[in-house]
Design a protein that fits this description.
By secondary structure, the chain is mainly alpha-helical. The chain has 2 domains: 5-157; 175-308, no CATH class. Helices cover 69% and strands 6% of the residues. It is built from 7 helices and 6 strands, in the order αααααααββββββ. The strands form 2 sheets. The protein has a 3-stranded antiparallel β-sheet, covered by helices on one side. It has a 3-stranded mixed β-sheet with strand order 2-6-3. Strand 4 (292-294) and strand 5 (300-302) form a beta hairpin.
Length: 309
């Protein structure tokens, strides 16, 4: 009967060489996966360096999940190292022969099979962890996007309603005048804070916007005094809001068919009792508390209240 031990041994050696190549490939795959994870974890750490970021809480949660993944892959790396060590043992064993070689081959075959099963299980666990992390990130990103969208819509609605209020208070032209935007916003803010001077001026502006030709002339004096009570004038400086308000009154007067006009008084003007009203005596205007309202023929309808020296 022919001796088949030599053929069996050759087959075992061939099987062992094949397992060696597979083990080397597995170890290479382990190294690549660990490198990819290191890059991702490093990116996560850099993103976490900004504590004021709106996504910091979500990233901390991701960090914990990735930490678990890193532990798994660390264990996988250790198993890969064991595979490489086993390959070295295989290389040493290939030179031996006889019963010792058969026993070593059988032991190594069992060890390699066990490691392969462990690696497969670990791969499944890692994939599941990554899928869970990805799903969590997607949910967090969707929630953040929805929150930002809702906040943006609320801000847009607030701006739209504010624009509507300004259009009612100041009229269509003055409400969009870029030169007075800051002053108008200041008036609205003070109105919302309940400051009396701002409330009085807005009330007068609303009455002017709603007035007809008969009632409008009577309101212009009160509007001027309300304006300077809110925005005192003791220096002769250019005031875009003052000029724009006078222009708005002129447009309103023309729209209702009236003929009244406004004459602005400036600090430093010579006191004129026919145009100015002051309880004190003096020759020069030092502060303005109202404007002169003129009739359609240019004559004085109401005088401007002033301080003099």
């Amino acid at each position: 009967m022919a001796d088949t031990s030599g053929d069996d041994l050759a087959q075992q050696r061939e099987s062992l060489l094949r397992q060696k190549r597979e083990a080397i490939q597995q170890a290479s795959d382990v190294d690549r996966k660990i490198m990819e994870l290191d890059i991702e974890v490093e990116s996560e750490k850099q993103a976490e360096e900004s504590p004021s970021s709106p996504q910091s809480d979500a990233r901390l949660s991701d960090r914990d999940s990735l930490g678990q993944v890193l532990k798994m892959l660390t264990a996988q790396e250790e198993r890969g190292t064991a595979v490489q060590q086993l390959v070295q043992t295989i290389n040493q064993t290939l030179g031996e022969s006889g019963e010792t070689q058969r026993q070593l081959i059988a032991n190594m075959d069992h060890t390699i099979g066990t490691l392969a099963n462990q690696l497969a299980a670990l791969h499944q666990e890692v994939r599941a962890e990554f899928q869970q992390t990805a799903s969590s990130r997607a949910a967090d990103e969707d929630s953040r996007r929805r929150s930002e969208q809702a906040a943006g819509q609320a801000a847009a609605e607030q701006q739209r309603r504010l624009a509507q209020w300004q259009n009612v208070i100041f009229g269509p032209a003055l409400a969009v005048d870029p030169a007075t935007a800051d002053v108008r916003q200041q008036l609205v803010d003070q109105l919302l804070d309940g400051q009396p001077a701002a409330c009085n001026l807005v009330g007068q502006l609303l009455q002017v916007q709603a007035a007809g030709a008969e009632r409008l002339p009577q309101l212009l004096q009160d509007l001027g005094e309300a304006y300077y009570a809110w925005r005192p004038k003791s220096e002769d400086v250019v005031d875009p809001m003052e000029q724009a308000t006078v222009a708005m009154v002129a447009e309103k007067t023309e729209a209702v068919g009236g003929g009244n006009t406004i004459e602005i008084v400036r600090p430093g003007d010579r006191f004129d009792s026919s145009r100015h009203d002051s309880k004190a005596r003096g020759a020069e205007v030092t502060a303005v508390h109202g404007w002169v309202v003129l009739r359609s023929n240019g004559k004085v309808y109401t005088r401007a209240r002033v301080s003099v020296q």
